[in-house]
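Each field is listed here:
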Amino acid sequence: MKLLVSCADCRSRLYFPLALIAGLGILALANRATVADEALVVTLDQAKVMRIPERTTTVVVGNPLIADISVQTGGMIVVTGKGYGTTNLIALDTRGNMLLEQPIEVRGPVEHVVIVYRGVDRESYSCSPKCERRITLGDTPAYFDATLMQTGRRDGQAQGTGTANESRGR
């Protein structure tokens, strides 16, 4: 025996739960944080600009020794590579809801860089076009410190606060 029911009311009762489930699913997706599939790749000692969600009030970096951020106006941030490795960036709204989770990968420079090994000692040079010393994580401490000291002295001279100016005045 077949029972055939044909009424608009019956169909609406059948489709209402499906529509409700679909609507709730869309609402849940709209409130869910964006999780980036690919990491933002930043070169060590360089920066990249990226846009963050509009309602962001707090930005957190998982490991600030790997990457640093500077919040700019207009929903932009500058991500700077500080150390080799992988970390993440999280953007939160005023209620603490996560709006974005972005992996960040900091890699070493590959263009115009020459690395010289003298046994176990390592030195890095920027070669564009002439090779000059550069400070790179992983260089031998003596080389790194000497290059850093020279750079600091040069910067001090440029700002008029260098050690040479101080010693002349004494």
In short: The longest helix spans residues 8-31. The radius of gyration is 28 Å. The first strand starts at residue 34 and ends at 35. Residues 1-7, 26-31, 164-170 have pLDDT under 50 and may be disordered.
